[in-house]
Amino acid sequence: MLGVVPAFIVSQWLAVRWGLPTRQWFNGLVMIGVLFVAGVRRGRLISYRRELAIALAVVAGVVLSAGTSGAPITVMLRGSIPYIGFILLIVGSLAFSPPLHDLRQGATIAVGSGALMGIVSVAELIGGKPVYRLFGQAIDYPDWWNRGRATGLVANPGRLGQVGALAIALAPLTNRVLWVVLAGAAVGASGSRLAVLSALAVGLTWLLRRRTDSRLLVIGALAAVGAFLVVQLAVPAARHDLAARNDAISSQIGDGEVVTDVRVANLKSTFAVWTDYPILGAGPGRFGSTTAWRTHSELHEQYGLPDVRSPEFEAQLRAAGDLRPIDVGIAQLDVGWLQVLAELGTIGLLGIAALLASVLVRSFRTRSVVPIALVAVLAIVSLGSPGIVDLSLVGVVAIWVGSMSGAQIDN
Q1: Which of 162-166, 185-189, 327-331 has the lowest mean pLDDT?
Q2: Are 148 and 127 in contact (CB under 8 A)?
Q3: Is 335 exposed, middle or buried (0-12, 13-18, 19+ CB in 10 A)?
Q4: Rounded Cα distance, 217 and 371, in Å
């Protein structure tokens, strides 16, 4: 709990900047750590019968979906990892139940990490390319420094926004007002629309527990929105980039348009997949996941998802007047909730929602608003990014949500 957020930041930076497999290393270490603690405290874990029962039902649904998909075994195994990993992390972390003092220490480091991202982000927006280079960020591609979007120390604006939002969600465990404001600045400087929305959702969770310490959630949310507006007004490149991203999506929502934004294509085609596979889905690794893209799933062509790796896709971009380099804003591989719906169907989506709801009900009884705020971040970023099936992000969220939901504390 002390090192998970800094390790998340470092793993993301090394993966984006140097192409190292540090995301997988991070995921593996977090999984091993959670399973180790759950094994040592298995007596405590067994007491969470409701969550264990739901988790087993969801795992059974994943296995059944995989078994009926007809996909090769390697695709089924790789495609199941995000779902099984999510379940193990959420349930296993219930056994942590650390003392309140340890929770506060870990939260102080996490919120401090978000504050550091805010300081670095402001420096990047003011200093431009030399400052990006100074902090070892990727500057040649996809040209974030020239688009008015900060990357902090994670080399990606979306990740920066997530770190800031997570720091705001953990704020009630600290009394660091300035740090929370700086974390809000990181969210605003990232230019991530979903991160700003998640920060707003975190602020609204204060209504569930109107306590003095929980007001930091509101302060962080206001700081995030304020920083976002300041950046948009003060940095023309950020304003133009936001307008281009909004236009790229809104102009393709209607029928009959040539789709050059994969998130829009996901939105249009996922429901067609779900209509054909409503109960168990198309199978893990078969449609919306990274596995499906890497294995060239035949369902992509069948349901009209463009191949972002092809010259034809780039030609479509240019013909539509879109001269941006192909990055995650154009070629998002998966959208969390849509991936679950397409690959696991109604049963999988309801099962995962039931598991999260069960854990949150338990956290509400412990009078802690932090797990609810953290899940709000995870839920909202899943609307336009992997989110709920992103094991790196899930690992950070799960450790805090599970440990606080299993702790008898008064926040």
Answers
A1: 327-331
A2: no
A3: buried
A4: 12
- Name the least confident of 20-29, 177-186, 204-213, 232-241: 204-213
Query: Are the beta carbons of 244 and 291 closer than 8 angstroms?
Result: no
Q: DSSP class of residue 305? A: -
pLDDT confidence band for 329 (50 / 70 / 90) = very low
Write the DSSP string, 135-167: TT---SSS-GGGGT---TTTT-HHHHHHHHHHH
Q: Residue 284 and residue 149: Cα distance in Å, rounded?
A: 34
Residue 321's identity, in one-letter code, is G
Give the start-to-end residue ranges of the domains of the chain.
Answer: 4-243+335-405
Burial class from Cβ neighbours inside 10 Å (0-12, 13-18, 19+) for residue 187 reads buried
Amino acid at 72: P
> Could you tell me the two tokens for 52?
């264990």
Tokens of 89: 């992390």
CA distance 409 to 411: 6
Terminal Cα-to-Cα distance of the chain (whole angstroms): 18
Do 385 and 342 touch, CB atoms closer than 8 A?
Answer: no
CA nearest 153: which of 25, 16, 20? Answer: 16
Taking the C-alpha atoms of residue 299 and residue 283, their distance in angstroms, rounded to an integer, is 11
Contact 335, 379 (CB under 8 A): no
